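Researcher: I'd like a candidate sequence for this fold, 445 residues long. If you have to choose between options at a position, lean toward the conservative one.
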């Protein structure tokens, strides 16, 4: 973003906050998509673009559809939507891991554009539905109809190629695919990945140039990230040998909750574009049932990732475990248990929240309020939980979370994430999805 663009604290009035959010999105616009930030994230990211499209729908609807269309132009032949689409105008080495590291052109079915080989949570169908709901014009309906088969292909890829565990859930093959890259949820599965910090001597990290190293993943964790990518790249990003050859295979509550939510959104979209919504409703119900059966732990009242290498649930209590509340057909008893856990001292949800929603159990010994995804508060997680609370009849808690989200930006600006105690802005300033989701909560009290 431009150095003179507004990014700091502003008055907590809706007009001022809306102006800040729009200026942030405008400053990050790149001819057909929005970069997450002008510093650390100069390319197009998958679930960022989905959240950003939700914000654009409130102020420049045409950009919402361009955002999604540009991302899906890089969809692979197998249906996967890559988690990064690289800007070819940037010099080689300007970002790590860049296109030369991923070498996507070597993979069968990869697009002409340079991309990563990984995916991120499929929140895109929800974004498309929310964008259409804001603007039911004929142009929007036509854009929705063009996008529908690509969204269906995305879901088909996850339901088939990524059902490695055979339990009707999709697995992630890298922590980055979860969206919560550095969560404590991945510590146990990552510990089995063979790598050491010496791996990083061949590379130069760019994240620690733009952010405090104490706030970012450690060099050892980054070496493991690189080793996992190298394993998948050696398979040329094929999924048929994952069970035998890949070191990281985990069923993630957030990714699968997003997948179930996508089927519900696709049922609504199908009714608009003249397709049959029934199969989408059936798949949504099947995903919810599988999530409860495989990832819910009644002893903790939370959902947990399942490590397919060990067959065990990961014990860490993170915000991932709250995300299935976004599914309106979650059994009432299960939803009540998850809400009770969200209201505990671990997460602090309340009608009048004293502190922001953390990304990890704030009572845990490995809670880190400054380190990426290991404690800080993120607006996208709060936004997803806000929707879930409304779906399960807790408008009081949803209102408290909404006030907390607005207060974070009013205090600190559109930062990437926030200190879970003080609300101070952390990570990249002028962050795209923070601005976009702020627009959405401001417009929908």
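Model: Candidate sequence:
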């Amino acid at each position: 973003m431009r150095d003179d663009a507004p990014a700091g604290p502003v008055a907590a009035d809706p007009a001022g906050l809306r102006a800040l959010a729009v200026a942030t999105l405008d400053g990050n616009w790149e001819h057909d998509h929005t970069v997450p930030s002008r510093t650390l994230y100069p390319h197009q990211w998958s679930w960022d673009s989905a959240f950003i499209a939700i914000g654009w729908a409130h102020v420049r609807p045409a950009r919402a559809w361009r955002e999604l269309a540009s991302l899906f132009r890089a969809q692979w032949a197998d249906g996967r939507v890559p988690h990064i689409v690289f800007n070819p105008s940037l010099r080689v080495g300007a970002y790590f891991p860049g296109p030369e590291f991923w070498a996507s052109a070597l993979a069968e079915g990869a697009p002409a554009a340079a991309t990563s080989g990984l995916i991120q949570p499929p929140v895109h169908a929800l974004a498309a539905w929310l964008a259409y709901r804001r603007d039911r014009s004929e142009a929007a309906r036509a854009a929705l109809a063009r996008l529908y088969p690509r969204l269906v292909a995305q879901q088909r890829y996850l339901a088939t190629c990524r059902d490695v565990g055979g339990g009707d859930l999709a697995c992630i093959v890298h922590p980055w695919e979860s969206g919560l890259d550095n969560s404590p949820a991945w510590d146990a599965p990552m510990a089995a990945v063979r790598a050491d910090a010496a791996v990083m001597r061949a590379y130069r990290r760019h994240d620690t140039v733009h952010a405090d190293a104490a706030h970012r993943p450690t060099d050892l964790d980054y070496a493991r990230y690189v080793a996992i990518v190298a394993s998948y790249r050696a398979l040329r990003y094929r999924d048929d040998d994952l069970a035998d050859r890949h070191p990281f295979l985990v069923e993630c509550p957030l990714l699968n909750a997003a997948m179930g939510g996508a089927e519900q959104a696709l049922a609504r979209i199908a009714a608009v574009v003249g397709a049959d919504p029934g199969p989408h409703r059936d798949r949504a119900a099947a995903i919810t049932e599988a999530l409860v059966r495989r990832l819910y732990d009644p002893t903790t009242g939370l959902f947990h990732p399942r490590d397919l290498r060990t067959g065990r649930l990961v014990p860490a209590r993170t915000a991932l475990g709250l995300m299935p509340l976004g599914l309106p057909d979650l059994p009432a008893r299960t939803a009540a248990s998850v809400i009770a856990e969200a209201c505990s001292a671990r997460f602090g949800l309340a009608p009048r929240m004293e502190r922001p929603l953390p990304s990890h159990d704030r009572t845990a010994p490995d809670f880190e309020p400054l380190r990426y995804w290991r404690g800080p508060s993120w607006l996208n997680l709060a936004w997803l939980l806000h929707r879930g609370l409304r779906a399960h009849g807790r408008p009081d808690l949803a209102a408290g979370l909404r006030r907390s989200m607005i207060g974070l930006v009013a205090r600190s600006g559109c930062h990437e994430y926030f200190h879970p105690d003080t609300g101070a802005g952390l990570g990249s300033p002028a962050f795209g999805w923070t601005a976009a989701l702020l627009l959405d909560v401001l417009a929908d009290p």
